[in-house]
């Protein structure tokens, strides 16, 4: 299974991709996680991305593409993958299409998780509070100011992906405001159709 999950920050992409990765035994490829790992490791890419992530800005396509395409070549991606948070721009989607086409691979689905903006802000605040309560470190971009920037960037750069994939007849939508299990069931129904 080769799946792209789209949705605004906090829509549930990470939650759903983790569940689906277990269900279908394919890796969850979160660009956010890959970028945070690069930052933590102090890699060249991580250093370039660090300030952008901290301020809620999107990392440039060339950096993100390099990280994702290298990861797609890994052994565990041979049976499939779930892309969580990638592509974020039409240019990234076109680059992904070209890379997959070169490998004779097609996406099985592109699913957008739709959610209300006010609910998304509340989810971010809840996630930060739960992380703190568990003794964890809150992500640098889990604050209202960075979240507002991320949402604005999403609307400006990522939202056009919906139209792009709709034109490609690949886009399916699910209601991200439903319970987690309901959203998972809706996604599974799309994948198994």
Q: Could you please describe the fold and organization of this structure?
A:
- The protein has helices at residues 13-24, 31-41, 44-54, 61-72, 90-102, 117-133, 144-158, 160-167, 180-192, and strands spanning 2-7, 28-30, 81-84, 109-114, 171-175.
- The chain is an alpha/beta fold.
- It has a single domain (2-192), classed as Rossmann fold (3-Layer(aba) Sandwich).
- The protein has a five-stranded parallel beta sheet with strand order 2-3-1-4-5, sandwiched between helices.
- Helix 1 packs across helix 9, helix 2 (31-41) crosses helix 3 (44-54) and helix 6 packs across helix 7 (144-158).
- The two termini are 13 Å apart.
CATH topology: Rossmann fold
- Oligomeric state of the chains present here: single chain
Distance between the termini: 13 Å
**Could you name the ranges where pLDDT drops below 50 across 5 or more consecutive residues?**
none
Q: If you average the pLDDT, what whole number results?
A: 87
* CATH architecture identity: 3-Layer(aba) Sandwich
Strand content: 5-15%
Q: With helices defined by DSSP (H or I, 4 residues minimum), what is the helix count?
A: 9
CATH class: Alpha Beta
Within the largest sheet, what's the order of strands? Answer: 2-3-1-4-5
The percent range for helix content is: 55-70%
Outline, from the CA principal axes?
globular
Order of helices and strands: EHEHHHEHEHHHEH
Topology:
Blueprint: E1 2-7, H1 13-24, E2 28-30, H2 31-41, H3 44-54, H4 61-72, E3 81-84, H5 90-102, E4 109-114, H6 117-133, H7 144-158, H8 160-167, E5 171-175, H9 180-192
């Amino acid at each position: 299974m080769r799946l792209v999950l789209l949705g605004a920050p906090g829509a549930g992409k990470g939650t759903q991709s983790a569940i689906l990765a277990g269900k279908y035994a394919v890796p969850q490829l979160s660009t956010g996680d890959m970028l945070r790992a690069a930052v933590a490791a102090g890699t060249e890419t991580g250093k370039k991305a660090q300030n952008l992530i901290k301020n809620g800005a999107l990392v440039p396509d060339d950096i993100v593409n390099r990280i994702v395409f290298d990861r797609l070549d890994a052994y565990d991606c041979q049976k499939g993958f779930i892309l969580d948070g990638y592509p974020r721009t039409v240019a990234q989607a076109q680059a992904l299409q070209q890379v997959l086409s070169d490998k004779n691979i097609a996406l099985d689905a592109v699913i957008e998780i739709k959610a209300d903006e006010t609910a998304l802000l509340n989810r971010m605040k809840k996630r930060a509070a739960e992380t703190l309560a568990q003794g964890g470190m809150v992500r640098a971009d889990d604050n209202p100011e960075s979240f507002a920037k991320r949402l604005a960037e999403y609307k400006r750069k990522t939202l056009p992906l919906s139209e792009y994939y709709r034109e490609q007849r690949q886009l399916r939508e699910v209601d991200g405001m439903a319970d987690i299990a309901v959203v998972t069931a809706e996604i599974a129904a799309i994948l198994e159709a």
